[in-house]
Design goal:
The protein has one domain (2-205): Alpha-Beta Plaits. It has a 5-stranded mixed sheet, with helices on both faces. The chain has helices at residues 20-38, 60-73, 103-113, 127-145, 149-161, 165-172, 176-185, 188-205; strands spanning 2-11, 41-45, 49-54, 84-93, 120-124. By secondary structure, it is an alpha+beta fold. The protein contains 8 helices and 5 strands, in the order E-H-E-E-H-E-H-E-H-H-H-H-H. Helix content is 54%, strand content 17%. The N and C termini lie close together (11 Å).
Length: 208
């Protein structure tokens, strides 16, 4: 058995997308970036659905936020916001079993199907970990739901390598103060804490 994290997701309000080709191009670009950054294996299905597997399970929380930030940042305009519902599953994967039939893949898919109003959930054993993780995840989900495209773009660039605000500003062609303000509005300090604390929390509940 090998340790694995799986992210399964789909586009929110997919029927309202006017340019499906443009959306899929953006999604493919973000997934390619995740392959490079996190060593992820990715696949796209049904046009607006996707699945991502990570052998580096400690990356799953950052990778999920990276994905959502990239989609929101690439939204065409305020009237058409691109974002995704995502279910994160952490568990063991039997390499003998075909990937999509492995338990952790099934758990992630079922969690996505069971989602209601929330846009981000965590599945994993033991149940006490899942309960604790989803409390914090619900708050972060609410933060992300309120990001503007500019805030999402700035946070997306920040997650690329956590460079200085000045370096990000130069890459985006903005002033340092504008970048700092956008990051503060995106609550990047809480996002960083969530990523760090969720990884530590998983370690407290599960022995690797």
């Amino acid at each position: 058995m090998s340790q694995l994290a799986v992210i399964t997701g789909d586009l929110i309000n997919s029927t309202r997308v006017e340019n499906g080709q443009r959306f899929r191009a953006l999604l493919k670009s973000i997934l390619a970036g995740m392959t490079k950054k996190y060593g992820a294996k990715t696949s796209i299905y049904r046009g607006d659905g996707f699945q991502i597997s990570l052998t580096r399970r400690d990356c799953v929380f950052e990778a999920t936020i990276y994905l959502r930030a990239g989609l929101i940042a690439g939204s065409p305009d305020r009237a058409e916001r691109w974002d995704a519902r995502v279910a994160m599953a952490l568990g063991e994967h039997d390499a003998v079993i075909e990937e999509q039939n492995s338990t952790v893949f099934i758990q992630s898919g079922r969690a996505l199907d069971g989602m209601k109003k929330e846009h981000m959930v965590v599945v994993g054993e033991p149940e006490s970990f899942q309960l604790a993780a989803n409390i914090a995840t619900a708050f972060v989900d609410d933060l992300i739901d309120n990001w503007t495209a500019v805030e999402a773009q700035t946070l997306f660039e920040y997650l690329q390598g956590r460079e200085s605000h000045q370096a990000i500003a130069e890459r985006l062609g903005k002033t340092r103060s504008t970048v700092t303000l956008s990051l503060q509005r995106a609550r990047y300090n809480l996002i960083d804490r969530y990523i760090t604390d969720m990884t530590r929390l998983r370690g407290l509940f599960v022995k690797h």
